[in-house]
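Bug #77: duplicate submission created two jobs. Keeping one. Sequence:
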Amino acid sequence: MDGISTKQNVDKKVFKIAILPTEHKAVLDTCSALSQKGLAEIIFLKVDSQAQIDLDHLEKTCSKGIDLLSTMAANNEVGTIYPIQQIGEIAQHYGIPFLCDGSQAVGKIPINFSEWGITFLAISGHKFYAPKGIGALVLRRGQRLKPLIYGGGHQRGTRSGTLNVPGIVGLGEACRLRSREMAEDEQRIAQQRDRLQSLLQSAIPHLVVNGDLQHRLAGNLHISIPGIPNSAVIARVRNQLAISTGSACSSGVETPSHVLTAMKLPSEVIEGALRIGLGKFTTDDEVEQAADILISAYPICTQRLKTHRLAGWTAAVSIQLYFLKTFPSRETVATPVYDFIFASHGKLDDRIGISGFLSSGCATLSLCKLSA
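Kept job's structure:
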């Protein structure tokens, strides 16, 4: 075979894919990989300060010709609900396949797959109380996808591999239950969310609520406390309240939220952002407790940050010291015995997370940037 070239000069088509800059990282990183491989040109649609899509810009983009439109039904960080029916109508008008990431929306808001012009709908079971590790991709009749996994030809050749039967049953049962309970549940959850929001707004000055307040998921409350780094608040309440600074899938990444950055929010709003989630099993008492915990943390964080905001000292470290107690059951319990914030001389350009262990216990350190 010497001298015989096995390479073929094949012109690869570069697909044009339009997406929102506020998409989940699962979409953004996949599109980035396709772009880096030279397989796709990624076109970012415009969003406003509420993360809401600019439909005029969408139509102009579609009119110029694209191969795929991909938008989420609802944002996973700020809860903004997108006008999927209108987006689908625009896609249909220009004959563009429309992939809708319904992970955050299915089971929480109505979605009409057959009538809204959706070509592909992705759903994730654990987002509406099905087991973790199960999801589905709904394809419009007549659509075919090339498989990524081969061997066995399962699911009509679309995705080979032994099916997760218990997970599928759980997903189906969750869909059935949500169809019966969703409307009542989401109304109650929205009332709880509004109650929590009202309590926080009345007690925390200058609190900002992010997202589209007229079109958002019932269980999402995304707030910012300008001037108070979210790391300081998290460090103060972490043993009492489960909240996050952004997407749970990216919570270990110490970088500003790409969603809030795309919304072009002020830096102090981004740095003070907290995401609070409510669900079907959240009780009214828990809402009141969550409000009390956050309201109590605010003046403590404010005072300590003011105390240590010295000239030329730009960084604060929040440290919680725990003694580890091991019981006969071998269950280890961390008991907080010391909690303080101190200033560190010098400048810090980025947030830094530090974890350390001491011979007498465990010290959890969270280093955060102070506002000027």
